[in-house]
Design goal:
The protein has 10 helices and 13 strands. The protein is α+β, with helices and mostly antiparallel strands. This is Selenide, water dikinase.
């Protein structure tokens, strides 16, 4: 394989695919998180990061890593760092320190490429004012990179996925479609700069705006797709949702990638998992659903409430399930 085509080493596909949601939930079914008076958000909540009260602060902790989604090593590092930091922002927090997590096939890919990956991660962390102060590396048959991130938040201003209430707007802060474009990139080498720009954009400002507005519920849209993460938030909060597909921002090139069949296996598994909870309108097509289930990498925040400058894509409801119009 060509070392310049990093995505050829990503056996999992052209997106940051997680273990399929249904399989993951079955694997952890029955496992209970450690409880205690200072645990604010633990394993049982299924939220974006853990939260523990230490004094007057909520300490947030998360980790995320994945195989290459683009061939440029520096850009992959930037994307992976932004993706890991996003879990802290999704909880309404501020990242304060990160450590690198990297697996590298050192007998196949030059270490100079690994340096570029780490350099990209450091660039995004610097932008986030979050120093990278260590890490862990292993010799791995396929390259993997990400970060473990620690953040802080006001315990009374946490954004949670179980705090949504019915009758409130749903706001999405980034366009969807990067999974389709990453899969096309893996198969053809075609670059979509808009997708890279989207994936490397921090969710910092959107998170700050949400907490400043006193909003309570949010999650970030990543590997389970928009529908999957919306379903998880609705289920945790015991609410439903109505979404308007025409209001959802989509990277224009993603529609072309969908038309040309660049749908990942992860996206199809996302849709299979969430389909029993959907009520699509009569004119909603299978392609519409695949786009809304597209497995994202470093996606935007899905916020319950209005944020100036970002589109409202629907609203929460009292009834269960997700209606799509």
């Amino acid at each position: 394989m060509d070392p310049s085509r990093l995505t050829e080493y990503a056996h999992g596909g052209g997106c940051a695919c997680k273990i399929p949601p249904g399989e993951l939930e079955e694997a952890v079914r029955g496992l209970l998180g450690q409880t205690g008076p200072n645990v604010l958000v633990g394993l049982d909540a299924g939220d974006d990061a853990a939260a523990v009260r230490v004094g007057d602060l909520a300490i947030l902790s998360t980790a995320d890593f994945f195989t290459p989604v683009v061939d440029n090593a520096y850009d992959w590092g930037r994307i992976a760092a932004a993706n890991a930091l996003s879990d802290i922002y999704a909880m309404g927090g501020r990242p304060v320190v990160a450590i690198n997590l990297i697996g590298w096939p050192r007998d196949v890919l030059p270490l100079e490429l690994m340096t570029e990956v780490l350099r990209g991660g450091q660039a995004i962390s610097t932008e986030a004012h979050c120093p990278v102060i260590g890490g862990h590396s292993i010799d791995d048959p396929e390259p993997k990179y990400g970060m473990a991130v620690t953040g802080v938040a006001d315990p009374d201003k946490l954004l949670r996925n179980d705090a949504a209430e019915p009758g409130l707007p749903l706001t999405l802060t980034k366009p969807i479609g990067v999974g389709l474009l990453n899969n096309r990139h893996k198969q053809t080498g075609e670059i979509c700069q808009e997708a890279i720009d989207t994936m490397t954009r921090l969710n910092r400002d959107a998170a700050a705006a949400a907490t400043a507005a006193g909003l309570k519920a949010a999650t970030d849209v990543t590997g389970f797709g928009l529908l999957g993460h919306l379903h998880k938030m609705c289920r945790a909060s015991k609410v439903g949702a109505l979404v308007h597909r025409d209001a959802i921002p989509v990277i224009a090139a993603a529609r072309e990638a969908l038309r040309d069949g660049f749908v990942s296996g992860g996206t199809r598994r996302n849709l299979d998992w969430v389909r029993p909870h959907l009520r699509p309108g009569a004119d909603v097509t299978e392609d519409d659903l695949l786009l809304l289930a597209d497995a994202q990498t470093s996606g935007g925040l899905l916020v319950v409430g209005e944020l100036p400058g970002h589109p409202v894509i629907g609203h929460t409801t009292a009834g269960p399930g997700i209606e799509i119009r």
